[in-house]
């Protein structure tokens, strides 16, 4: 009888080890899937918040987007296929760092154009505020000389 109980215990131990290995394998796959999900969520812009990634945002729409990312990854889609899905649905703006292509040139160049416009406006404003080119009248010149003379005498004393 002893051989049977040892065999049953051995089989039970073997099954327990296999279950633990399967669970560890599943946990590793889940962790890999979660890592891919978060990496993709960090590349996509929350369409509600617009200044946060889907990974950072706590908006309900961002939660839906994360669920959709996970669903597509579980279906076996590649990272690029998932990004393309969201780009088709929301446009290039959904990428947190949109690619450089003709449809996004304005998006990429608008900060530089705004800065250039600001410098042009500043230059025009400063040019119009400059001193007038009018010459001083002889009375104004004499008054300025007197003022300078009295100021320089007071400083010497």
TrEMBL record:
Stretch list, region Disordered: 132-157
MF GO annotations: metal ion binding
GO CC annotation terms, alphabetical: plasma membrane
Signal peptide: 1-24
InterPro entries: C-type_cytochrome_biogenesis, CcmH/CycL/Ccl2/NrfF_N, CcmH/CycL/NrfF/Ccl2_sf
Keywords, in A-Z order: Cytochrome c-type biogenesis, Heme, Iron, Membrane, Metal-binding, Signal, Transmembrane, Transmembrane helix
Basic and acidic residues composition bias: residue spans: 140-157
Cross-referenced CDD domains: CcmH_N (cd16378)
GO biological process: cytochrome complex assembly
Transmembrane intervals: 105-122
Residue ranges of every copy of the CcmH/CycL/Ccl2/NrfF N-terminal domain listed in the record: 12-146
Protein function: Possible subunit of a heme lyase.
Family: Belongs to the CcmH/CycL/Ccl2/NrfF family.
Name of protein: Cytochrome c-type biogenesis protein
Source organism: Comamonas testosteroni
């Amino acid at each position: 009888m002893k051989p049977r109980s040892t065999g049953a215990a051995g089989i039970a131990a073997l099954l327990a080890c296999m279950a633990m290995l399967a669970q560890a394998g599943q946990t590793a796959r889940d962790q890999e899937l979660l890592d891919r999900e978060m990496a993709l969520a960090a590349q996509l812009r929350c369409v509600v918040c617009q200044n946060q990634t889907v990974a950072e945002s706590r908006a309900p729409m961002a939660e839906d987007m994360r669920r959709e990312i996970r669903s597509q990854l579980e279906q076996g889609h590649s990272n690029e296929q998932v990004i393309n899905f969201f780009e088709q649905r929301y446009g290039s703006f959904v990428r947190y760092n949109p690619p450089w292509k003709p449809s996004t040139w304005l998006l990429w160049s608008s900060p530089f154009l705004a800065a250039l416009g600001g410098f042009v406006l500043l230059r025009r404003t400063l040019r119009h505020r400059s001193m007038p080119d009018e010459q001083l009248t002889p009375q104004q010149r004499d008054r300025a000389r007197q003022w300078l003379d009295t100021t320089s005498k007071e400083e010497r004393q």
